[in-house]
Amino acid sequence: MPQDKDSSAPYTRPIRRILVGILILCLLGIFLFWRIDSPRAERLRMAVIDELAPRFAWVTAPVTWAGKIAEDFQSYNRLWEQNQQLRRELQQMKAWKEAALQLEQKNAKLLDLNNVRLDPKLTYVSGTVLADSGSPFRQSVLINIGAHDRIRDGWAVMDGLGVVGRISGVAQNTSRVLLLTDSNSAVPVTIQPSGQKALLQGDNTVAPFIEFLESAELVRPGDRVVTSGAGGVLPPGLLVGQVAQTPDGRLRVRLAADYSRLEVLQVLRTPEREKIDDAGRLIEPNPMLAAPEMQGPDLPDG
User: How far apart are CA 245 and CA 220, in angstroms?
Assistant: First the structure.
């Protein structure tokens, strides 16, 4: 057996060389044939391709599948990066939106404060809200102005849109504002255009109800409600809100003030009224004017 292997060894190399040479010639011939620019050669090439392409589809299938996987992975990677970028931009947009809303609210509040129409005799001092009561049984807020700013008990407080309440406690640098919605708040009001007098009574809800109305049939939903000034509780003519009617037929007031965003408030400096100690001297005649009247007519002599 070893002798047979040794005897076949001299024939293996020449045969291998011959086969390699034939393969090279075939490949060279195919290359040259593929480069021939002739209609007959083109038809023959197309026929060969049509004949061999379907049979070698299984060879190209794994390569095609691997290429698609690579393209899908690259596409997924790009989508993931774009998604992360959009998430970051969305977070920035949310922050910018919140800042824009806060600036818009403050701007609207300041514009309202500038455009509010008050009695020329009334001056005001503005303050910011520090805290609220945080209790469902008491509706009040704390502002950062007090006795140091000459704030006094009972003065009216507005937010630029309408009456918010009145001062119900003054410290050196802070004051307590009792809101119109508090159950302890009772403000005399006038309903326009009918001119009906009533009492606005808070009940710890966003819409206080109307009591002691003279003629309810003269009042319609949407009528304007202003302070009447009766009893000296608040100055007259300050906007409170509009009349609204509940399903049970009860009349309430939709307040003009925006209680959801109480940030800057105006405290109206109400001028002090003259105190009358002696009612009998209220209509005291002027002695200089009364002197000629007290003298009798001149009588002729004799």
Answer: 8
Q: Cis (ω within 30 of 0) for the bond into 2?
A: no
Q: Residue holding tokens 């011939």?
A: 29
- Dist CA 243 CA 223 (whole Å): 5
Question: 132: alpha, beta or left, given left = phi > 0 and alpha = psi -120 to 50?
Answer: beta
Predicted local confidence at residue 187, as pLDDT: 93
Q: For tokens 């040479």, what's the residue?
A: 21
CATH classification of 123-269 is 2.40.10.340, yes or no? yes
Q: According to the model, what pLDDT value does residue 293 have?
A: 47
Quick check: 280 pLDDT over 60? no
Give me 242's structure tokens.
Answer: 């509009």
Could you tell me where the DSSP H helices lie in 53-166?
Answer: 57-115
Q: Are 132 and 261 in contact (CB under 8 A)?
A: no
Domain assignments of the chain as residue spans, ordered by start? 123-269
- pLDDT (tens digit per residue) in 139-181: 889 999 999 888 999 999 998 788 999 999 999 999 999 999 9
The predicted model scores a pTM of 0.53
Instruction: Assign 249 to helix, strand or coil.
Output: coil
Coil, helix or strand for 264?
A: strand
